Amino acid sequence: MGQMGYHQKLNEMSATFSKQDYHQTLQAARHLKEELLLQKWPDPSMLGWSRWYEFKSLYRLEKYQDAYRLLSQPEPKPYTMSAKNSGLMYSIGAELAMRLDHLDGVILWGQRCLTTQLSCGDLASSLQCAATICELLHSMKHDQRNLDFVNYLLALGHEHNSEQAIFHGYRYMLAHVESCLDPQTIDELMAGIPTLQSFQSPDWKNEAIKLIKKITQSSWYKEALPSPEQQERAQRLTLHQAAATGDRLRTKQLLDEGVPIDVQQFSSHPSTHCEFSTPTR
Protein backbone atom coordinates (compact mmCIF):
# COMPACT_ATOMS: atom_id res chain seq x y z
CA MET A 1 0.00 0.00 0.00
CA GLY A 2 1.34 3.44 -0.96
CA GLN A 3 1.45 6.62 1.13
CA MET A 4 -1.85 7.82 -0.34
CA GLY A 5 -3.52 4.61 0.77
CA TYR A 6 -2.18 4.96 4.31
CA HIS A 7 -3.31 8.58 4.55
CA GLN A 8 -6.75 7.54 3.38
CA LYS A 9 -6.91 4.95 6.13
CA LEU A 10 -5.86 7.55 8.68
CA ASN A 11 -8.60 9.88 7.49
CA GLU A 12 -11.14 7.05 7.77
CA MET A 13 -10.01 6.24 11.32
CA SER A 14 -10.25 9.91 12.27
CA ALA A 15 -13.79 10.04 10.87
CA THR A 16 -14.99 6.89 12.65
CA PHE A 17 -13.42 8.04 15.91
CA SER A 18 -15.15 11.42 15.60
CA LYS A 19 -18.43 9.54 15.16
CA GLN A 20 -17.63 7.68 18.40
CA ASP A 21 -17.50 4.36 16.56
CA TYR A 22 -14.64 3.18 18.70
CA HIS A 23 -15.03 -0.51 17.83
CA GLN A 24 -14.57 0.24 14.13
CA THR A 25 -11.65 2.57 14.84
CA LEU A 26 -9.96 -0.06 16.98
CA GLN A 27 -10.29 -2.70 14.26
CA ALA A 28 -8.95 -0.33 11.61
CA ALA A 29 -6.00 0.74 13.78
CA ARG A 30 -5.01 -2.85 14.51
CA HIS A 31 -5.37 -3.86 10.88
CA LEU A 32 -3.16 -0.96 9.79
CA LYS A 33 -0.56 -1.88 12.40
CA GLU A 34 -0.51 -5.49 11.22
CA GLU A 35 0.08 -4.35 7.64
CA LEU A 36 2.86 -2.02 8.67
CA LEU A 37 4.66 -4.57 10.83
CA LEU A 38 4.85 -6.98 7.89
CA GLN A 39 7.15 -4.49 6.19
CA LYS A 40 10.89 -4.51 6.83
CA TRP A 41 11.00 -0.73 7.32
CA PRO A 42 7.50 0.55 8.02
CA ASP A 43 6.79 4.28 8.04
CA PRO A 44 7.44 5.30 11.70
CA SER A 45 4.80 8.06 11.63
CA MET A 46 2.11 5.71 10.29
CA LEU A 47 2.98 3.13 12.94
CA GLY A 48 2.70 5.90 15.54
CA TRP A 49 -0.74 6.89 14.27
CA SER A 50 -1.98 3.30 14.37
CA ARG A 51 -0.77 3.03 17.98
CA TRP A 52 -2.43 6.37 18.83
CA TYR A 53 -5.87 5.35 17.53
CA GLU A 54 -5.63 1.88 19.03
CA PHE A 55 -4.85 3.35 22.43
CA LYS A 56 -7.56 6.03 22.29
CA SER A 57 -10.16 3.51 21.16
CA LEU A 58 -9.33 1.10 23.97
CA TYR A 59 -9.60 3.95 26.46
CA ARG A 60 -12.95 5.13 25.10
CA LEU A 61 -14.24 1.55 25.17
CA GLU A 62 -13.20 1.43 28.85
CA LYS A 63 -10.84 -1.44 28.18
CA TYR A 64 -8.48 0.07 30.69
CA GLN A 65 -6.26 -2.96 31.28
CA ASP A 66 -5.68 -3.43 27.53
CA ALA A 67 -4.97 0.29 27.05
CA TYR A 68 -2.50 0.29 29.93
CA ARG A 69 -0.78 -2.82 28.60
CA LEU A 70 -0.44 -1.22 25.17
CA LEU A 71 1.07 1.92 26.69
CA SER A 72 3.53 -0.07 28.78
CA GLN A 73 4.78 -2.28 25.93
CA PRO A 74 6.97 -0.93 23.10
CA GLU A 75 6.16 -1.67 19.49
CA PRO A 76 8.39 -4.26 17.78
CA LYS A 77 9.54 -1.64 15.27
CA PRO A 78 10.38 2.08 15.63
CA TYR A 79 7.56 4.61 15.52
CA THR A 80 7.21 8.35 15.94
CA MET A 81 4.50 10.39 17.60
CA SER A 82 4.01 14.09 18.15
CA ALA A 83 4.91 15.48 21.57
CA LYS A 84 1.30 16.60 21.98
CA ASN A 85 -0.08 13.09 21.42
CA SER A 86 2.66 11.52 23.54
CA GLY A 87 1.91 13.89 26.40
CA LEU A 88 -1.79 13.08 26.21
CA MET A 89 -1.08 9.34 26.18
CA TYR A 90 1.13 9.66 29.25
CA SER A 91 -1.54 11.73 31.03
CA ILE A 92 -4.19 9.11 30.26
CA GLY A 93 -1.68 6.47 31.33
CA ALA A 94 -1.49 8.07 34.78
CA GLU A 95 -5.29 7.99 34.99
CA LEU A 96 -5.32 4.33 33.91
CA ALA A 97 -2.74 3.51 36.56
CA MET A 98 -4.99 5.14 39.16
CA ARG A 99 -8.00 3.13 37.94
CA LEU A 100 -5.94 -0.06 38.12
CA ASP A 101 -4.49 0.87 41.53
CA HIS A 102 -0.89 1.08 40.26
CA LEU A 103 0.59 3.82 42.44
CA ASP A 104 4.06 3.71 40.89
CA GLY A 105 2.44 3.88 37.45
CA VAL A 106 0.65 7.11 38.34
CA ILE A 107 3.97 8.70 39.25
CA LEU A 108 5.87 7.21 36.28
CA TRP A 109 3.41 8.34 33.59
CA GLY A 110 2.81 11.62 35.39
CA GLN A 111 6.53 12.40 35.30
CA ARG A 112 6.76 11.47 31.62
CA CYS A 113 3.75 13.63 30.83
CA LEU A 114 5.20 16.59 32.70
CA THR A 115 8.64 16.19 31.10
CA THR A 116 7.07 16.05 27.64
CA GLN A 117 4.90 19.13 28.20
CA LEU A 118 7.79 21.12 29.66
CA SER A 119 10.00 20.21 26.70
CA CYS A 120 7.34 21.70 24.40
CA GLY A 121 7.19 24.91 26.44
CA ASP A 122 3.47 24.33 26.98
CA LEU A 123 2.88 26.07 30.31
CA ALA A 124 -0.87 25.48 30.53
CA SER A 125 -0.56 21.76 29.81
CA SER A 126 2.40 21.43 32.19
CA LEU A 127 0.43 23.01 35.04
CA GLN A 128 -2.62 20.91 34.22
CA CYS A 129 -0.51 17.76 34.23
CA ALA A 130 1.11 18.49 37.61
CA ALA A 131 -2.26 19.36 39.18
CA THR A 132 -3.90 16.27 37.67
CA ILE A 133 -1.27 13.94 39.11
CA CYS A 134 -1.67 15.57 42.53
CA GLU A 135 -5.41 15.03 42.30
CA LEU A 136 -4.99 11.39 41.22
CA LEU A 137 -2.68 10.74 44.17
CA HIS A 138 -5.17 12.48 46.45
CA SER A 139 -7.99 10.24 45.20
CA MET A 140 -5.79 7.23 45.98
CA LYS A 141 -5.02 8.63 49.45
CA HIS A 142 -1.32 8.82 48.67
CA ASP A 143 -0.71 12.54 49.08
CA GLN A 144 2.64 11.74 50.66
CA ARG A 145 3.93 10.95 47.14
CA ASN A 146 2.89 14.24 45.53
CA LEU A 147 5.77 16.53 46.50
CA ASP A 148 7.64 16.47 43.16
CA PHE A 149 4.50 17.64 41.36
CA VAL A 150 3.69 20.17 44.09
CA ASN A 151 7.16 21.68 43.64
CA TYR A 152 6.61 21.90 39.88
CA LEU A 153 3.34 23.76 40.44
CA LEU A 154 4.99 26.24 42.78
CA ALA A 155 8.12 26.72 40.66
CA LEU A 156 6.13 27.28 37.47
CA GLY A 157 3.65 29.46 39.32
CA HIS A 158 6.34 31.76 40.70
CA GLU A 159 8.22 31.84 37.40
CA HIS A 160 5.16 32.84 35.41
CA ASN A 161 3.32 34.81 38.13
CA SER A 162 0.40 32.39 38.08
CA GLU A 163 -1.67 32.73 41.26
CA GLN A 164 -3.72 29.74 40.14
CA ALA A 165 -0.66 27.48 40.00
CA ILE A 166 0.70 28.79 43.31
CA PHE A 167 -2.68 28.28 44.98
CA HIS A 168 -2.94 24.67 43.81
CA GLY A 169 0.68 24.07 44.77
CA TYR A 170 0.02 25.08 48.38
CA ARG A 171 -3.36 23.32 48.38
CA TYR A 172 -1.75 20.01 47.52
CA MET A 173 1.17 20.76 49.85
CA LEU A 174 -1.38 20.98 52.67
CA ALA A 175 -2.70 17.57 51.62
CA HIS A 176 0.86 16.26 51.73
CA VAL A 177 1.41 17.68 55.22
CA GLU A 178 -1.82 16.19 56.51
CA SER A 179 -0.84 12.78 55.18
CA CYS A 180 2.59 12.53 56.80
CA LEU A 181 3.28 15.61 58.99
CA ASP A 182 6.71 16.09 57.43
CA PRO A 183 8.42 18.89 59.44
CA GLN A 184 10.31 20.33 56.45
CA THR A 185 7.17 20.53 54.33
CA ILE A 186 5.28 22.09 57.24
CA ASP A 187 7.94 24.83 57.34
CA GLU A 188 7.61 25.38 53.59
CA LEU A 189 3.83 25.57 53.84
CA MET A 190 4.01 28.04 56.72
CA ALA A 191 6.49 30.14 54.75
CA GLY A 192 4.02 30.23 51.88
CA ILE A 193 1.23 31.92 53.84
CA PRO A 194 2.52 35.48 53.11
CA THR A 195 2.54 34.62 49.40
CA LEU A 196 -1.09 33.50 49.60
CA GLN A 197 -1.93 36.66 51.53
CA SER A 198 -0.41 38.77 48.73
CA PHE A 199 -2.75 37.51 45.99
CA GLN A 200 -4.32 40.28 43.93
CA SER A 201 -6.80 38.52 41.64
CA PRO A 202 -10.24 38.64 43.36
CA ASP A 203 -11.11 35.03 42.53
CA TRP A 204 -7.83 33.52 43.66
CA LYS A 205 -7.53 35.89 46.61
CA ASN A 206 -10.80 34.51 47.99
CA GLU A 207 -9.60 30.95 47.42
CA ALA A 208 -6.31 31.80 49.13
CA ILE A 209 -8.14 33.16 52.17
CA LYS A 210 -10.07 29.88 52.46
CA LEU A 211 -6.84 27.88 52.15
CA ILE A 212 -5.09 29.95 54.82
CA LYS A 213 -8.06 29.31 57.10
CA LYS A 214 -7.70 25.57 56.55
CA ILE A 215 -3.99 25.76 57.31
CA THR A 216 -4.44 27.76 60.52
CA GLN A 217 -7.23 25.45 61.70
CA SER A 218 -5.15 22.30 61.20
CA SER A 219 -4.33 20.32 64.33
CA TRP A 220 -0.57 20.70 63.82
CA TYR A 221 -0.61 24.46 63.18
CA LYS A 222 -0.09 25.80 66.72
CA GLU A 223 2.81 23.46 67.38
CA ALA A 224 4.41 24.55 64.10
CA LEU A 225 4.31 28.22 64.99
CA PRO A 226 7.76 29.54 65.93
CA SER A 227 8.25 30.80 69.45
CA PRO A 228 8.36 34.57 70.01
CA GLU A 229 12.13 34.33 70.38
CA GLN A 230 12.45 32.46 67.07
CA GLN A 231 10.20 34.98 65.36
CA GLU A 232 12.27 37.89 66.68
CA ARG A 233 15.55 36.27 65.57
CA ALA A 234 14.11 35.67 62.11
CA GLN A 235 12.93 39.29 61.89
CA ARG A 236 16.36 40.58 62.97
CA LEU A 237 18.05 38.36 60.39
CA THR A 238 15.73 39.64 57.68
CA LEU A 239 16.48 43.21 58.74
CA HIS A 240 20.21 42.57 58.71
CA GLN A 241 20.08 40.97 55.24
CA ALA A 242 18.08 43.89 53.86
CA ALA A 243 20.53 46.39 55.30
CA ALA A 244 23.62 44.46 54.28
CA THR A 245 22.44 44.27 50.66
CA GLY A 246 21.57 47.98 50.57
CA ASP A 247 17.81 47.43 50.31
CA ARG A 248 16.81 50.80 51.84
CA LEU A 249 13.10 50.41 51.18
CA ARG A 250 12.87 47.00 52.85
CA THR A 251 15.09 48.14 55.73
CA LYS A 252 12.88 51.17 56.42
CA GLN A 253 9.75 49.02 56.18
CA LEU A 254 11.06 46.56 58.76
CA LEU A 255 12.17 49.35 61.11
CA ASP A 256 8.77 51.01 60.78
CA GLU A 257 7.18 47.67 61.72
CA GLY A 258 9.18 47.75 64.95
CA VAL A 259 11.75 45.06 64.21
CA PRO A 260 14.43 45.57 66.89
CA ILE A 261 18.07 46.23 66.02
CA ASP A 262 20.45 43.81 67.67
CA VAL A 263 23.59 45.96 67.72
CA GLN A 264 25.68 43.21 69.28
CA GLN A 265 24.66 40.75 66.58
CA PHE A 266 25.40 43.22 63.79
CA SER A 267 28.55 44.79 65.24
CA SER A 268 30.80 42.96 62.79
CA HIS A 269 28.91 44.27 59.77
CA PRO A 270 29.78 47.93 59.05
CA SER A 271 27.36 48.09 56.14
CA THR A 272 24.52 47.47 58.55
CA HIS A 273 25.47 50.40 60.80
CA CYS A 274 25.98 52.61 57.80
CA GLU A 275 22.54 51.73 56.47
CA PHE A 276 20.88 52.36 59.83
CA SER A 277 22.62 55.69 60.23
CA THR A 278 21.88 56.98 56.72
CA PRO A 279 18.91 59.37 56.82
CA THR A 280 16.00 58.34 54.67
CA ARG A 281 15.30 60.87 51.92
Description:
The protein is mainly α and 281 residues long. It has a domain at 230-281. It is built from 17 helices and no strands. It has helices at residues 3-18, 22-37, 44-60, 64-72, 83-99, 103-119, 123-139, 147-159, 163-180, 183-191, 193-197, 202-216, 221-224, 228-244, 248-256, 263-266, 270-277. Helix 1 packs antiparallel against helix 2, helix 1 (3-18) runs parallel beside helix 3 and helix 4 (64-72) crosses helix 5 (83-99). It starts with a helix and ends with a helix.
Question: Layout of helices and strands, plus pairs?
Answer:
Blueprint: H1 3-18, H2 22-37, H3 44-60, H4 64-72, H5 83-99, H6 103-119, H7 123-139, H8 147-159, H9 163-180, H10 183-191, H11 193-197, H12 202-216, H13 221-224, H14 228-244, H15 248-256, H16 263-266, H17 270-277
Helix pairs in contact: 1-2, 1-3, 2-3, 3-4, 4-5, 5-6, 5-7, 6-7, 7-8, 7-9, 8-9, 9-10, 9-12, 14-15
Can you tag this structure with a few keywords?
mainly alpha, 281 residues, disordered C terminus, elongated
Low-confidence parts? 264-281
Distance between the termini: 81 Å
Q: Mind telling me the C-alpha Rg?
A: 27 Å
Largest sheet: none
Question: What is the global morphology?
Answer: elongated
Helix percentage range: over 70%
The secondary-structure class comes to: mainly alpha
> What is the number of helices?
17
The overall average pLDDT, rounded, is 88
Task: List the helices and strands in order.
Answer: HHHHHHHHHHHHHHHHH
Total strands: the figure is 0
Q: Strand share of the residues? A: under 5%
Q: Concise description?
A:
The chain is mainly alpha-helical and 281 residues long.
